[in-house]
Amino acid sequence: METLLLHQWEIFIALEVMATISLLLFLVFRYAFTRRRVSFMFLGLFFALLLLEVILAIGLYKATGEISTFTFVIGIFILYAATFGISDFRKLDRFIKKWVGKWKGVDLLTEIDKERMERAKDPKVISRNSLLWWLGHLAVFLILQTYFWLAYGKQDEGLMYFLTDWSWFRAETPGKGPFTSDMVSSISQLWILIFAIDTIVSWSYILFPGKD
After folding, report:
1. How many domains are there within the chain?
2. Residues of the chain with pLDDT > 70: what percent?
3. What is the pTM of this model?
4. Whole-number mean pLDDT of the chain?
5. Angle ∠(98,79,176) on CA atoms, nearest 5
6. Which one of 31, 55, 82 terminates a domain?
7. Residue 8, domain member (yes or no)
8. Whole domain around residue 143: which residue ranges?
9. Domain final position from 82, 108, 142
10. pLDDT tens digits, 152-177
């Protein structure tokens, strides 16, 4: 367990890299080499690696007794894989079909694939999907930030104090944030920054999805 605590980030990155490679190999062997049995082996490896990430997060939580930045990040990755990751995988699947089809000189895309690829270029679809993504991000952001405040917030100073004075956001001194836990403060600040960037990007697609 001491080794896991010392090298947790390196192990997590290695698992993510191997999971990504496994997913790509699943698609390549499925379409480029038509080796379905081999491809499903790589798909099984992908899910096994995700399971290892979950086991790693649970083990570290039991060892430390607290939700660290590491376990939080793994939770976000697993949540993504179970939600938006499915949609992104379907896009990747269609991309690999198109790429392999051009390479082999055959059309691997189904009519449904072609229809979805064309629909994805529709400005209305782009705008709607961007809005749904942003609303989903907003909901998760508000729910977890509320949980952080209720569980770790400095209730004596009050929430409005930190919402009206953002000097704590730039402070380098630990303990200046709205939370009693420095780890939670770091997560909250990072997520606020990510949410702000995502808001700018998402609304650029919502308001200006393009003409084609």
Report:
1. 2
2. 96
3. 0.71
4. 88
5. 125
6. 82
7. yes
8. 121-212
9. 82
10. 899 888 888 888 888 888 766 667 78
Neighbours of 100 (CB within 10 A): 18
3-state helix, strand, coil in the chain (%, to 5): 80, 0, 20
Please state at what angle helix 69-82 crosses helix 182-207, rounded to 10 degrees.
30
Lowest-confidence segment of 13-22, 43-52, 57-66 by average pLDDT: 57-66
83 vs 77: CA distance, rounded Å: 10
CA distance 100 to 35: 14
CB 107 within 8 A of CB 97: no
pLDDT tens profile 93-121 = 999 999 999 998 999 999 999 999 998 88
* Residues 59-85: b if buried by 16+ CB within 10 A, e if exposed: ebeeeeeebbebbbbbeebbeebeeeb
The pair of structure tokens assigned to 126 is 């782009």
Q: How far apart are CA 81 and CA 38, in angstroms?
A: 22
Residue 95 in any domain: the answer is: no
